[in-house]
Automatic annotation (TrEMBL):
Keywords assigned by UniProt, alphabetized: Acyltransferase, Transferase
EC number(s) per entry: 2.3.-.-
Gene3D superfamilies membership: 3.40.630.30
Pfam families registered for this protein in UniProt: Acetyltransf_1
Protein name stated in the entry: GNAT family N-acetyltransferase
Enzyme class: transferase
N-acetyltransferase domain residues: 2-163
Organism classification: Bacteria, Pseudomonadati, Bacteroidota, Sphingobacteriia, Sphingobacteriales
Keyword Transport on entry: no
GO molecular function, one term: acyltransferase activity
CDD domains: NAT_SF
Stored InterPro entries: Acyl_CoA_acyltransferase, GNAT_dom
Length: 165
């Protein structure tokens, strides 16, 4: 089981240690940060309003294994971003799906959001598969491209809506 706890300055070095090269940084954070990730960048990031930043804690071990965020720019709609299972020992075990499900639950139940979107690069098949397992679907979206080392990375937008019972 994964629980979410607030991400704070005490978590900076752990997150920085997970981002071992520029490609991982862009894959994880888009163009938000510059490599190498630094505490100055994270301080400025945490001070932005409308952003809910979490660390993912594996229970019962109480190990911090991941990171995720929800940004709320308009009522009822959130954008999930910067999702990572950072500790390599926990990758490939289905914990990304669990982390994302927990983030969605937080968004729908505690933040009262009706819709959650996320962006993913179209070549990141493992992440797309994970997001689809949680219930996200690719939606039409304006074409967005990130250039990394001369390569064009196409951005897909995925969405999940709150299920009404």
């Amino acid at each position: 089981m994964i629980k979410l706890e607030p991400f704070s300055s005490e978590d900076f070095q752990r997150l920085i240690s997970w981002v071992t090269d520029a490609k991982i940084l862009v894959q994880f954070a888009g163009t938000k940060f510059k490599y190498p990730l630094s505490t100055d960048q994270l301080v400025a990031h945490l001070n932005e309003s409308k952003r809910h930043v979490f660390k993912g804690v594996l229970i019962p071990e109480n190990n911090v294994i991941g990171h995720a965020e929800i940004q709320v720019d308009e009522p009822g709609i959130g954008l999930i971003s910067r999702v990572i299972i950072g500790d390599p020992n926990y990758r490939g075990k289905g914990l990304g799906k669990e982390l994302l499900s927990t983030v969605c639950k937080k968004g729908f139940e505690e933040l009262n959001l009706q819709q959650l979107d996320l962006n993913v690069y179209d070549w990141n098949h493992q992440a797309i598969h994970c997001y689809r397992q949680v219930g996200f679907e690719v939606i039409p979206f304006k074409k967005r491209i990130t250039i990394f080392n001369g390569e064009e990375w196409n951005v897909l937008r995925m969405r999940i809506s709150k299920k009404l019972n």
